[in-house]
Amino acid sequence: MTGTSTLSRAVMSGYFWLLVLFLYAPIAVVVVFSFNDSTIAAFPLTDWPTSEWYSRAFDNEAVKEAMRRSAVIALMNAALATLLGLAAAMGLSANRLRLRGAVTALIMLPLVVPYVVLGIALLILLKELGYDQTLTAVLAAHVVITIPYSVLVILPRLRTLDASLVEAARDLGATEISAFVRITLPLIIPAVLSSALIAFIISFDEYAIASFLVPPDGSTFPVFLYSGARTPELRPQLLAIAAVVIVVSLLLVVLAEILRGRAERRLAGID
Predict the structure, then answer these.
(1) What is the rounded distance in angstroms from the CA atom of residue 27 to the CA atom of residue 76?
(2) What's the number of domains the chain is made of?
(3) What's 41's DSSP letter?
(4) What distance in Å separates the CA atoms of residue 260 and residue 266, rounded to the nearest whole number?
(5) Is residue 90 assigned to a domain?
(6) Fewer CB within 10 Å, N- or C-terminus of the chain?
(7) pLDDT tens-digit profile of 76-108?
(8) Highest mean predicted confidence (pLDDT) among 76-80, 98-102, 135-139, 237-241
């Protein structure tokens, strides 16, 4: 039995590391080629490492504008999706809610609808209403697809709270809003921050829907990245920008996890 368990652990360990290699090797390759002097992303590397493409990329106004648009949309989406997701989660956590299953299914529907189908449907809707593609439409679409993630993150945290805490605050004269701000919100703040981070990342990286809704002169960063990848002269700069985005994303995830862990430990101490 000991030999069988050892073999099983070895197989699972090998499978895990193969999965890690499969997922992260392409990311590592992008970072490596961003320091390559050649315009062709291929081995052998020439004059490695070089920072030429980084300086060119950050001098490229089109690249910076695309990143700025995506960052602004992602920040606004993080705020709106988290607020709306929090409101939906508060409603779903209520003891008395008619048609809870139907409401939950409606909120989660964007998770099962392919983004390409959703993008085409939203484009048709815009045209039927007499509007053209705009960044506002991109933001609205991103809010729709990220609200389910916000609800999935915040709702479980709400369900773990002790309802007697809010009831005690109400008995002491607190209003609904005051009880939420003073009692509920501090207890769910790690989930709220996680929701905002997830909404930001999804919006910043989203391509399928944005490709249908962005105006011709206002591409978001993923759309610009995909179209620019077809231009050999621009491709090394895009690799450099992609490497920066990867590193910043990893740092954000690590920072968010550290802050979430501290908040969880603080709340555990309070409990």
Answers:
(1) 27
(2) 1
(3) -
(4) 10
(5) yes
(6) N
(7) 999 999 999 988 888 887 777 677 778 788 888
(8) 76-80
Domain range enclosing 261: 56-270
In a domain, 79, yes or no: yes
> For residue 49, is it within any domain?
no
Give the phi and the psi of residue 256 in degrees, each rounded to 5. Answer: -65, -40
Collapsed DSSP state (helix, strand, coil) of residue 215: coil
Residue 259: which CATH number?
1.10.3720.10
The predicted-structure confidence for 166-209, as pLDDT tens digits, reads as follows 667 666 666 677 777 777 777 778 888 888 888 988 888 888 88
- DSSP notation for 16-34: HHHHHHHHHHHHHHHHHHT
Name the nearest CA neighbour of 227 among 246, 244, 249, 211: 211
pTM: 0.78
